[in-house]
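so ive been stuck on this for like two days lol. basically i have the seq below and the ligand is adenosine-5'-triphosphate, smiles is in there too. i just want the complex predicted, nothing fancy, no docking runs or whatever. if the output looks off dont worry ill sanity check it later, just need somthing to start from for the group meeting slides
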Amino acid sequence: MNKTELRRLIRQKRRELTPSERNIAGRRLLKQLTARPEYLYSRRVALYLSNDGEIDPQWAIQDLWKRGKQAFLPVLHPLRKGELVFIRYARNTPMRNNRFGISEPDFRRGKQVPARFLSLICLPLVAFDSRGNRLGMGGGFYDRTLAFTHHQGQKPRLAGCAYAFQEVRLLPAESWDIPLQLIVTDQEARPLSADTGL
Ligand SMILES: Nc1ncnc2c1ncn2[C@@H]1O[C@H](COP(=O)(O)OP(=O)(O)OP(=O)(O)O)[C@@H](O)[C@H]1O
Ligand SMILES: [Mg+2]
């Protein structure tokens, strides 16, 4: 199956979940996250607002606020096409809709933090495999934004967030794809590695 077909199938399955199934899964996602040191010891954590049926990290965002940690959201860079920046997300952060209709912190009014200063980035995804390969929506936004992790010492940890059914046996890895170190689903949280995946 090619990437386009796989994206279509999994996105459709994701969208078919009922609101109550989404709620339960989102709360389970938080439970799995809170069992991980990568989450517990991170002070600055980037997440996302659920779109297109993605597993919903809103409970995790609330949890970060409660613990006095800082939450960040990805925002489309207004000039650098295809790149994201991370802006602080608090209860009173001014929001706007981007060109995809996704709500994001207002770039002009928000506090931007370079990705290398985040301790943990939680990425949405369409599919993942046990080696840490990630299939996104196809824009390459996260890959472009995180390309610096190839050659820079200080790196945020990258955790994919997904429903357990989004796991596939093996994804084709492209040269530009940035691998995940951790996967967190509604069922489990586990480290991923290209060395131990098969
Ligand atoms: N570091 C990069 N520099 C330039 N182009 C890139 C880079 N990373 C990815 N791209 C481009 O983005 C396109 C989409 O990449 P890919 O299919 O991996 O998207 P994705 O990982 O599914 O999407 P996303 O990361 O937005 O969730 C590719 O065709 C590739 O050319
Ligand atoms: Mg990719």
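The CA atoms of residues 106 and 123 lie 20 Å apart. The mean pLDDT is 95.
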